[in-house]
Amino acid sequence: MDWQAGALNKMLLGMHIINSPINWFQSTIATPITVGFINWWMWFGYTMIIFMAGIQAISNDVIEAAIVDGVNGIQTLWYITLPLIRPTVIYNVITSLIGGMTMFDIPFVLTNGDGSPQGSILTMVMYLYNTAFRNYHYGYAAAIVTALFIMIGIMVFIAYKIMNRKPVYD
Q1: What single string gives the DSSP state of each residue in 75-139?
Q2: How far apart are CA 113 and CA 119, in angstroms?
Q3: Which of 15, 53, 35 is nearest to 116 (CA)?
Q4: Which residues 6+ apart lie within 8 Å of 77 measured at CB?
Q5: Are 24 and 3 a contacting pair, CB within 8 Å?
Q6: CA atoms within 13 A on the CB side of 27
Q7: Is the distance from CB of 9 to CB of 18 less than 8 angstroms?
Q8: Boundaries of every domain in the chain
Q9: Is 7-163 in CATH node 1.10.630.10?
Q10: In which broad location class does this protein mainly occur, judging by the first location in its UniProt entry (predicted)?
């Protein structure tokens, strides 16, 4: 991600996608995208292992019965695989939601805790850290963490309710 000698800029320049190197950590648009990509890359393997475990837990008898009934691949995915891995999807969505709302390490390391540029990647947990341990406002930090806890609880409840709806069949 180095803007002068980084592999990504060299690759994009070599493919003639960009004309000049991008300073990934000085742009208010590129910095959040970069942090998002780093987090996606960091958690991709774990998420895929969970999904693979959910898919492998589907009984072969169900798939074979669907094939005998004449179901094609897309119908198998839509009507058999996805409904049967719903608990796995709910787990991944909720843990990703909690992880996203409590993100601290990547933005903190990349910006020395200030969320630069212009606070574009200042997360609530970084703000909490700065309030408590750099500015020493412990009471305000306690209020922030309480609000964060409530917000995460509400968001998880909403995500769970949306994802755990029972399908209506005719």
Answers
A1: HHIIIIIHHHTHHHHHHHHHHHHHHHHT--HHHHHHHTTS--STTTT--HHHHHHIIIIIS--HH
A2: 10
A3: 35
A4: none
A5: yes
A6: 13
A7: yes
A8: 7-163
A9: no
A10: membrane
Q: Name the one residue in this structure whose structure tokens are 């309710």.
A: 161
What the block records as the tokens of 111 is 């910006």
Take residue 85 and report the two structure tokens written for it: 């891995």
The one-character DSSP state at 20 is S
Q: Whole-angstrom Cα distance, residue 107 to residue 87? A: 30
- Angle (CA) 69-73-79 rounded to 5° is 70
Which token pair is 63? 């798939």
- Residue 137 CA, distance from chain mean position: 30
Cα 62 from Cα 67, distance rounded (Å): 9
pLDDT in tens, the chain (170 residues): 888 888 988 999 999 999 988 888 888 988 999 899 999 999 999 999 999 999 999 999 999 999 999 999 999 999 999 999 999 999 999 999 999 999 999 999 988 888 888 999 999 999 999 999 999 999 999 999 999 999 999 999 999 998 887 765 54
